[in-house]
Amino acid sequence: MEGKTHYERIIGGTQEEKEIASRELQAAFEERSKKLTEYEVEKTPEDLEIIKKTESIVDKMVLQYGGVTKALPPEHIYVLKPGGVLAMTEGRLAGGIYKPLGLEIGVEKGKSKLLFASTIAHELFHLKSYKSARVGKSGEDIRLYRSGVSMIDRKDQNEESGEEKEYFAMLEEAIVAECTKKFLDEIGEDREFSEEVQAVKKFRNWVVAYYHRRGIPEEKTKEFERELKYIADPQDKVEQVFAFSDDEEKRQAYAAGMFGVLYERGGVETVERYGERKKLYQLLDKLVINSDGKFKSRDEVFDEFARANFSGNYLPLARTIEGILGKGAFRKLAEEFSKEPKKEKHKTSETANP
To answer: How far is the CA of 79 from the CAs of 106, 157, 321, 340, in angstroms?
Structure first.
């Protein structure tokens, strides 16, 4: 296999240990994952085309945010049978998985091309975030140190990999999820995905209109509109609503009722990492409000966070935050957005070591 690991730096240890660690990283990059291979299905020509389109958009966004794109061998993207991630993680994760040291992703393939592309993009944003590693107890004990803005505590070398505190972990997840939202806006314009996208949009508009008529608070309605990503078999659901009645208000009510049933049966997909993104949005709004006009919108501030994530350069972001919120604010945020070891489980798209 041609190509080199994407890791930019290795810290800690002696020079000899760093050289050993570098070889370990390269070996991990070249070795096929046995777990992922167990659940892998052969890629179809359509799969390959979706992967190509998805990676092209992801790379464009990474470059836009100051990152460096590097070639990823096609074998590093595993298409998995439905339930594969759930099985290999014993129910801990579902949908997609990302292995940081070997730089591999696994994505379950279902009926929806849009969800397939979305999950690939999410995991690629993780993979293509800035990467550095560190030497643990020896050169052979190579560990993840930084992935995007997240940084793993290295104070205690006796802690096993996965037991350390991870600073800015929730922030990195929020950045990746927000980038995935932006990816969906762009790929939705592609003809291959437009039918699904338009069907979801039509169905969502019916439900929103019904909520407005029923006097549902505007804030809740807008949140529903922002967060709904997908419903199962959207084209079929739209056809069912059209067939139900010629009266638009009756269609709206029927779609709202159908949505409730879909939600209860797990047929609804919302944009991932709601909690992490909400925390990020609150921070972005706070920075805009207190910036004395330097920033006019969330997107302007988000650009600085995304640049730190993909370029690996913390300094401009730290200066911005401390210039607005005061000295020590950046360190405080590192704690607020940290993740304690093995205390938090997520449903979808979590990093995993080989």
So the answer is: 6, 36, 40, 31
For the entire predicted model, the pTM comes to: 0.90
Q: What whole-number distance in Å separates Cα of residue 39 and Cα of residue 108? A: 9
325-333 long-range contacts, CB within 8 A, separation 24+: 325/286, 325/287, 325/290, 333/168, 333/171, 333/283
State the pLDDT at residue 157: 54
Of 99-113, 115-129, 162-176, 287-301, the least confident: 162-176
**Cα 83 from chain centre:** 19
Parse the chain into domains and list their residue ranges. 9-170+342-351
The pair of structure tokens assigned to 87 is: 């099985």
In the sheet where 77-80 sits, what is the strand order? Answer: 77-80, 104-108, 94-99, 348-351
Given a contact cutoff of 8 angstroms between Cβ atoms, the answer to whether 154 and 92 are in contact is no
Pure H helices in the chain: 15-30, 34-38, 45-64, 84-88, 113-127, 169-187, 191-213, 218-227, 234-244, 248-264, 274-289, 298-311, 315-325, 329-336
Nearest CA among 311, 330, 312 for reference residue 320: 330
* Strand, coil or helix: 104: strand
